[in-house]
Design brief:
The chain is mainly alpha-helical. The protein is 64% helix and 0% strand. The protein has helices at 3-18, 21-33, 38-41, 43-54, 70-85, 92-103, 114-122. The radius of gyration is 13 Å and the shape is globular.
Length: 129
């Protein structure tokens, strides 16, 4: 599991307690990468995580408006939908291709750790019903 997957899991667990996924991502990503570093500020994995939280997909995290990123939110939701139908998509690159096809996006387009976030969360039991 990559660092963004690790951040997503730890941030989800923290956000379940604090009910603040934005703050949780900030805290955990700062601990792992260092506050203000390019890796800590990277938007794609962060916005994918926050998009899932916005839609109430993670247990005990209230629905809210946590991100303005529409594309990364859609990517996360499409990935979750695909995984719920076929759990064999545990390779980020393979899942990314399927997500782009499902979203009607042009190929090739490189993923930017969005799939790492969804795949890491997938096996944890943090997703709601």
């Amino acid at each position: 599991m990559g660092k963004y997957g690790q951040i997503a899991i730890e941030a989800a667990r923290l956000a379940q307690k604090t009910k603040d996924p934005v703050g949780a991502w900030e805290v955990i990503s700062s601990q792992i990468f260092g506050k203000g570093t390019p890796s800590q500020l990277k938007g794609c994995p962060r916005n994918t995580f926050l998009g899932l939280c916005s839609e109430g997909k993670l247990k005990e995290i209230p629905v809210g408006n946590y991100t303005r990123s529409k594309k990364n939110k859609i990517y996360g939701l499409k990935a979750l939908e695909l995984l719920s139908k076929n759990t064999s998509f545990l390779d980020p690159s393979e899942l990314w291709i399927k997500v782009l096809q499902a979203a009607g996006e042009d190929l090739p387009k490189q993923h930017n750790e969005q799939m790492d976030v969804v795949i890491a969360l997938w096996g944890t039991g943090l997703f709601g019903p």
